[in-house]
Design goal:
By secondary structure, the chain is an alpha/beta fold. It has helices at about 15-25, 25-30, 40-45, 50-55, 55-65, 100-110, 125-135, 145, 160-170, 185-195, 215-225, 230-245, 260-275; strands at about 5, 35, 75, 115-120, 175. Helix 5 packs across helix 6 and helix 6 runs parallel beside helix 9 (about 160-170).
């Protein structure tokens, strides 16, 4: 029976790296008994709206079609919106829409042997990285103003993970630490593939270009320019310009959270994070 592997995030945890590796190594995966549904196709089943909730039958039909070939493993690659937005003003916890969307996923995958792989990262680095992504997308709200909208004591990963465990079972949920990326991209990919298929033995030597973010100077430029950008094309060109000339690879990273704020997040969540 085909095992269905849902890699469902979270945001800013190496999803693009894993998507690109699978896209560029389809033959290698097939030799290991692995088929995957790529990020581009998942736009139609998850998207930035609510097709998962409104037209789940389309996703189900695709899963059934792929399973007809009886691959040992079928990976559904992560789409950033699978569980909705990670932080919503006025809503507690990370991914406040997670329960509704996980219930929809459970319905779509009913009857499959399903495993969930979900990467998480410490709240302080997650908050900073997600804010910079919003700026990349065109936001121009200052960090302090944006972050003050959220309750520091209500940014737990546990509710989302508890919903996954309830829907799919504890034995079918793997919560992994994004800090594994510090060992290197190839090692990160290797651990992911081993979770998909124990015994995965293909040599991984994958070196795509680094996914750059912006430096402190780049952030200042973006916050000043973004209010004047009117189209997606303009925002895309600005993003590429900043990544080329003002990235955090070549210049100092922006300072967002204060030492006191980081300490508060560690005090609130470090023990819970290690337990998860």
């Amino acid at each position: 029976m085909t095992q269905l592997v849902l890699h469902i995030g979270a945001h800013k945890t190496g999803t693009s790296l894993l998507q690109k590796y699978m896209r560029d190594n389809e033959t290698t995966l097939n030799r290991q008994g692995i088929t995957y549904i790529g990020r581009g196709d998942m736009n139609g089943y998850i998207g930035w709206g609510s097709p998962l909730l409104e037209t789940p039958e389309k996703f189900r039909a695709r899963l059934e079609k792929e399973a007809e070939a009886s691959p040992e493993n079928l990976i559904v690659t992560s789409h950033e919106n699978t569980l909705g937005k990670p932080m919503i003003v006025g809503r507690p916890d990370l991914y406040p829409e997670a329960q509704l969307r996980i219930e929809a996923l459970a319905g779509v995958t009913s009857g499959f042997d399903t495993r969930i792989i979900y990467y998480i990262r410490r709240q302080s680095s997650f908050v900073e990285s997600y804010y910079l992504q919003l700026v990349h997308q065109g936001s121009y709200e200052a960090f302090d103003s944006w972050f003050s909208s959220f309750d520091v004591s209500a940014l737990s990963w546990r509710p989302a993970l508890d919903s996954m465990e309830k829907a799919f079972g504890q034995d079918n949920l793997i919560a992994a630490d994004f800090d594994e990326i510090k060992a290197g991209q190839n090692e990160f990919i290797e651990k992911f593939m081993e979770r998909v298929r124990p015994g995965f033995d293909a040599t991984i030597d994958y070196k795509p270009s680094r996914n750059r973010s912006i430096s402190g100077k780049g952030l200042s430029i973006a916050l000043a320019a973004n209010p004047h950008l009117r189209t997606g094309d303009e925002r895309s060109k600005m993003r590429k310009f900043l990544q080329k000339h003002y990235s955090n690879v070549d210049q100092p990273r922006p300072i967002l959270l204060s030492d006191e704020q980081k300490a508060a997040l560690r005090a609130e969540y470090e023990a819970e994070f290690e337990n998860l």
